Each structure stands twice: as C-alpha cells, then as structure tokens.
Amino acid sequence: MADPSSYRPKPGQIPDSPGVYRFRDEHRRVIYVGKAKSLRQRLANYFQDLAGLHPRTRTMVTTAASVEWTVVSTEVEALQLEYSWIKEFDPRFNVKYRDDKSYPYLAVTMNEEFPRVQVMRGHKKKGVRYFGPYAHAWAIRDTVDLLLRVFPVRTCSAGVFKNAARTGRPCLLGYIDKCSAPCVDRVSAEEHRELAEEFCDFTAGRTGTYIRRLEKQMMDAAEEMEYEKAARLRDDIGALKKAMEKNAVVLADATDADLMAVAEDELEAAVQIFHVRGGRVRGQRGWVTDKVEAVTTGDLVEHALQQLYGEETGDSVPKEVLVPALPDPVEPVQEWLTGRRGSNVSLRIPQRGDKKALMETVQRNALQALALHKTKRASDLTTRSRALEEIAEALDLDSAPLRIECYDISHLQGDDVVASMVVFEDGLARKSEYRRFQIKGRVGDTQIWHGAGQDDVRSMHEVIMRRFKRYLAEQERTGEWAGDGSSVELSADAYEGSVEGPGEGLGEGAIEASPGAVEGAAPEADDARARLVDDTGRPKRFAYPPQLVVVDGGQPQVAAAKKALDELGIDDIAVCGLAKRLEEVWVPDESDPLVLPRTSEGLYLLQRVRDEAHRFAITYQRTKRAKRFKAGPLDEVPGLGDARKQALIRHFGSVKKLRAATVEQICEVPGVGRKTAETILGALARTAPAAPAVNTATGEIIEDEEPAPAGSGQEAEAAGASDERRGQET
C-alpha cells in the first residue's frame, strides 16, 4: 500500500482548469480515470486525511503510485477524453457496466451493395443500421418474417448470395416472394436499396404514413376491380399491423425517447433502458455493475450514458433521454449528447404524465434485475460456502456460521419502536424463523426510558435479552443447557409479550405469536410446549441458537448485544455489526472495524442479511404506525376486544353518544360489566374533544356540540375514580 503523500503533486503544479486525470499503480497500469471542471480542486480531495475518505476511494489512492493529468479547453472535451481512456485502459476502480446477457439487434447492412437484414450481436459496425436491442433473437426473426412479405429484402449470407448469382437460381425465399432476389437481377441494386430504406423507416417507427398509403392503394385497386392486387395489399397491411402489435404503444405517436432507471444498494447497481421509437417500445437492455468507487445516482447515470451513446451517432441517439437523476453538472453531458446526435437532445427527469408512468415501469424492471442478480449470486452453493468461510476467517470463528441471526431496530422519531430478527441458514433466508418484536423499554421490572427517549442501543439490548432468555428457558426445561455455573433468573419476564411470528411470502405480513408467546405466559404453563419440537416435528420457536449474531449498526449496537449475552452467561455465540454507511464490520471490544474487500462474498452475505432485517423491521413499523393512525378512542381501552367494541357501537350508534352515556347505560350492553364501563368512560374522557368555542358578544356556541347529559357528573366521578385506581396499580 502506497502512501499518497509520497506522490502527491505540489498544489502549484496542478492547473485550475478542466481536464482528465489518471491514477497509475506501481506497475504503471491505469487504475482510475476521472474528469474535473477544476483539476486542482478535484485532485486536492484525494490527498486529504485518509480517515475522511470513502473506503473505496481510500483503497484507490493507497493502491496508486502516481497521478497525471491532461488539460482540455471545455468540460465536453473532458467528457469525451474520459470515455476514450476508460475504453482504452479499462481501469479497475472505474464503474464498469457489464451486460447481464448478450442482447441481439435487428441489423440492416446499409454499407453493402445489396443490404442484408440479419440478427447481430456484439460490437456495432460502421454503416450498419441497428434496431433494438431485443430480449430474444426469436422475437427479431418473427418480426422480420412478417415484414419480408411487404419489404422483400435480402436475408441470405454472402456465400448463398454468390452461389445463387452463379447458378442463376434464387433461394427458397426468392421463390415464395419473401425476397426480391437481387442475386438473379429481378430487381436492380437501386430498387433493392430503396426496399431496404423502406424497411428501416418502418422499423424505426414511421409506420402510420406507410400503412395509410397501402390502405389507399388497396381501396383504389378495389374500385378498379383489381381484386387480387387489393387482396394482396390487404394481407400486407395485416402483416404490418401484426408486426406492430408485437411492440406496445406507450407514448404518443412519433415520440422517440430512451428511458433509463437505476436500482442500487451499497455495493451494486442495476441499470435498465427502454428504447421508445415512434411511441412504441422497440427494445430493452440492462446492465449490472459493482460500485467500485463512491458514486451518486447521477454519476451512475452519466457512466451509463457514456456506455450507451459513446459509439452512437445520428438518429441512434434519440431526441429525448429520460433519467432518474441528472449528472452534476448536467450541461456538458447534454452538450455531448447533442454533438453525438447532431441536433438538440433533451436530458431530463420526467415529472408527470405518461412518461413518468413509463419511467416507473422501467424502475420496476431495474429493481427486478438487481434482485434476480442477487438471487443468482446467492443461490450458488460454492459461492455461499466461500462466503461463510470468509466470515469465519474474518471474525476468527472455529467453524463457518451455518445459522446467522440479524437484528434491526426501526422507529419513527421514537414512536412505534419495533425490532426484527431474520435467520439465514447455510447462506439462505429461513423465513419461517423470522420474528418481530414490540420494544417495551423495560429491563426486568425497571422502567429505564420513555417515549422519544428510547434509542437503538437500549432497544437492541432489550431484544437480544428477550430472545436469548427464551432460548435459555427452552434449554432449561429440556435439561439440555448446563450453563457456565452462573445463575440466570428466568422469570415470566423472559416470556413478556410482543413477540410475533414469521413473515409469509416476502415478509409483508406476519403470523401472530402462539399462546406460548403471549404476555405473562409462565414457563411451566404447558408441559407439551417444553420440548424442543412440537407434535408436528417442527422446532420450537427460539429453541436453536445461532453461531453468529449480526446487528444493524456500529460499535454501540454491538456492545449492547454483547452485554446482553454476557449478562445471560452465553459466551459461545459470536457477535458483529455491519455499519451501513461505510459497510464496516464491527466486533466487540475492538476500537477499529474490520474492512472486508469489496469483492468479498462474505461481505456480500452480511449485507444481504442486514438489508433483509432492515426491510422486515421497517415493514412491521409502518404497519403498526398505520394501525395507530386508524385507531379510535375505544382502542385505548385495555382488554376491550373487537366484538365488544362493535356491540357498543351498535347499541349507541356512535362514539359521541357512547361518550354521553352513563355507567348504568353502558352496563346494559351484553358482556359489559360496571368496571369495564367505568374504564370505557375514563378512556373516552381522556380523548374527549375540546370545549366548544363561544361568541363572547352573543354568547352563542360557534360550533354546535350536544349538551352533556344529566349523568355527566357521575361520569366524571367514575372516570376520576378509575384513573385513581389505575395510577395506584401503575
């Protein structure tokens, strides 16, 4: 690792002008290429204190052994030179998009004397017109087969063409009128080229005018009683319309645009592009890249635009390019695109209408592409094994952690604090083992914080305590845990409620806890539940320990989790934390984090585990928040279920009338006793609306409010008594 100060240029040596710079390693290989509006300011950012640099940037500058630059006159020239050098040197620290598959194009070789229609892949050639890319080659062949009826352009190879010219006999397509057979001089080179031009125009989206012209010719032929010609034109029109139906209409006719969307996480990004020509989706392509450098979404867009249009000119660059974020600055990129096309190009973010709706579709495709890429990577057994081995080596574990549990805390400004527990076994998610917790803010019977004062560290301590108290209780009841000689009191608090079941599907919903997980359930409540497996043979919840506990967070969260395990006398479970900002791995009792290599499969697995815990936690938190926002005053009454709530509303007709009732009137509702009625009135009194406003001049009530009934004084006494009893109980 090189010391950046050893090759740092003197500030006076670096020009304060636009340019492109290259970092080289000790072997003179180019490892990074970048551009800058001001070379002096940009390069100064690389030579600051290493602790202030992004980990990927820090790795780059310590790998480099020298830096050099080239001054240009404008930012557009810098953009062009940067693209050229990236293509030439293929630097390891630049963002490099790699196709997740090879996309086929429909190509017309206009650079030949007799243009040929064919499927082409790979690098584009000069003088060849390309349409697409398409998802599958068979989709191109189906479209071409329909169009050849109307535009009988040559599709044969050079060998077949020369052989037909030598023998004087066309191929099969020439006999069935799907080729104009220029090989045997049925048409001249000029006539065949005109057919190829019409084929290209129709494929490029200029369809309406051509079909209207054919329809007019068909009507004219019918009027002149040339019925065979009219029938042939009718079939031609049908073939063209069928070919058009293969491409969905998404925007207004004659709209030419490319729509780009980006889905990303901390380590990777997926780009999806829809090519719209003539208002129809003519092609789609996508890339997945490792985020080798610290980049924003705008930077990813800029790199994608360079790769997409770096070798394109003319109409291959559309009039409009829609993106999720604009590069900074946007003017040089827009000017560069305009130069590639030869006319003005609009680069913008869609704000409303059909284009915004289509952009959302492209974004969904990008998200699916990233998820599919991760799934393929995670499903490989060899890759998973290597990931587990790398984790074991980094954390100095005796063996690979076959069961990993990850915990995350989620809340909104201190409200609705929840936690999630996700389980990965052998590197794969075990969703039936997922659990979610409501954070109570208690340790034992001691209230230690309230409301907005709850924090992630104490919440993490609580959830780890509760989860592993349940584990120890299961082991104690089955006689399978001998402990370390220390005494751990396993009271009913170990079973304190707010533990909920596993998520189904993608974890958006969850099954509520079984009776064994409800508040106050004693360990000896049910002997049948004291076994490791129930009658179905499934493992008891919390019965199995993990080899590794991962927490979402840094050193404080790791310390809280380790403290909880120490208090329970558990010393055979490893703990680590993954800090999201810099993807650093924290371990207990260490002042510095572990920084795993960017290409580490172990880091990738830890990130997947952490992200899944975060998703599961935030989904539960949002669900709880939505329920709280929909809650009514009767929801504040403890022990009042849905059946009695509905009975009360049916009896009184509304909450307003229920609030005005007396204790005796409420007791008339079946299933409601006097104590419950007093509790209901107390809860309703606390949630009563403010007193009505009164006009001081006239004494009139500004907002009508039903007058309090005669028994309201008794209500107040009952509510006060109820509140007093509740305070004593608390």
UniProtKB/TrEMBL annotation:
NCBIfam families reported for this sequence: PRK00558.1-5, uvrC
Record localization: Cytoplasm
Domain UvrC family homology region profile: 259-565
Protein name: UvrABC system protein C
Record keyword DNA repair present: yes
Entry keyword annotation includes Ribosomal protein: no
Lineage, broadest ranks: Bacteria, Bacillati, Actinomycetota, Actinomycetes, Kitasatosporales
Gene Ontology annotations for the cellular component aspect, listed alphabetically: cytoplasm; excinuclease repair complex
Any GO molecular function: DNA binding
Description of how the protein assembles with itself and partners: Interacts with UvrB in an incision complex.
Gene3D superfamilies on file: 5' to 3' exonuclease, C-terminal subdomain (1.10.150.20), GIY-YIG endonuclease (3.40.1440.10), UVR domain (4.10.860.10), UvrC, RNAse H endonuclease domain (3.30.420.340)
Region (Disordered): 695-730
Top-level taxon in the UniProt lineage: Bacteria
